[in-house]
Amino acid sequence: MKLSWGFVASSLYCTVSAAKPVVSPETARLILAQRLGVSRFHSLEHADAETIRHINAYGGRQQKLFGADDAESSKAHLLVWVEDAEGDEATVIINDASHETKQFAISSAPSASDNDRLMQDLILQAESLPAYPDPQQRTYTSNFEIEAVLPPNSKSDAFNGYLNMWRARKSDGVSNEDVAKVLIEANKKAEEAGFALTVVMMPASASRSKRSANPWGTYDLPSVETRRQNPEAVLSSNPSPSTSPKVSDFEDLPVIMQANNKAPVRGILPSCFNSLNACQSRTHNCSSHGECKLLHKGRGSGSKQQSSDCYGCACSPTIQHVGEDKGMESKRKVTYWGGPACQKRDISVQFWLFVGTGVILAFLVSSGIGMLYSMGAEELPSVIGAGVSGPSRK
Fold first, then answer.
1. Parallel, antiparallel, or unpaired for β 158-159 and 163-168?
2. Calpha distance 314→380 (Å, rounded)
3. pTM, whole model, 2 decimals?
4. Do residues 64 and 204 both lie within one domain?
5. How far apart are CA 28 and CA 372, in angstroms?
């Protein structure tokens, strides 16, 4: 009898509790990003308390205080992504080099093309990070253990020296026995070698389900300079095409704005953005009070580039008609906006009128008081007392 993938998962992870939570694809992406070490590219700005709780529960091993014993542990991670798995819902099973395994389900599983795009973006994010220190060669040795459990004909690359991915699809000729062997051996090697294991099993119905514009949510991607030199700055790029594009085309794809783009912009924003898409995404399209424009061009090009292009918000006033129109005149209220995202009401004119009026009034009052004091301190002239004499003696 041939083993099905659902039977393999249930038998392999029999210690997992039956009551598994169900999370959204956005929350699942945040959990995967935390486990794979690329959480800096995924924002928690609009995450609720329930999402934070799931990330803490399934996000992987917590780093010890002051990094104690962290340098001696293996940073290697194996991500097994199974497409067209049997079952009605997507399931994620995790094992952090221990005998305890956990799992959770994903509601409204994205399609295979969306999954492929997410995996490519995770690889780009992992490759842009600085290399992990490995003084004991634990991560380096674990990569050989991971390569040994994968099928011989599969391509295995340790992205940035720690992240290994294997995608199993029936269209590629991967049988149930191959998946069962990989899962059993990987779970055993994870406990022995100390690397982390994440198994994502996507149902076959996901490819036929109704697609959303961006099922995995929005996140940032490293720029070309970041992938080459590993700096800290990132560009925002959240496209979701129907087919997986080439890696070289990622920077030219349009940005899909966040669903809550009308919410107020929070945090400290830079005055310049490296691209128009980054400006529109970070500023929520200038809070609908302006538009992103090229403020000034960067100097130089190629290897001689001295500065990059600067994109920012050009704010425009909001005109609101109030009251009733009388003849050709109409009552209107004009509101001016300012700030890096045009999110602040510009009251500089009112402020300076108030301050100027206060300063002038204070000057006039102080001048009047000073004038009265100076007049009272002056001596009377001697001419006034010249004609005054005492009473005459009789």
1. antiparallel
2. 66
3. 0.54
4. yes
5. 77
DSSP-derived letter for residue 387 is T
> Which structural domain, as residue segments, surrounds residue 137?
5-252
- How many whole angstroms separate alpha carbon 292 and alpha carbon 283? 9
- Alpha helix segments (H runs only) across the chain: 5-12, 25-36, 49-58, 112-127, 138-149, 176-193, 224-229, 276-282, 348-377
Statement to judge: residues 31 and 97 lie in one domain: yes
DSSP 260: T
* Contacts of range 317-321, beta carbons closer than 8 Å, 24 or more positions apart: 318/289
Residue at 377 is within a domain: no
**45 shares its domain with 102:** yes
Residue 328 covered by a domain: yes
Is residue 341 pLDDT above 60, yes or no? Answer: yes
Least confident residue range of 25-39, 90-104, 117-131, 298-312? 298-312
Same domain for 45 and 148 = yes
pLDDT the model gives residue 152: 77
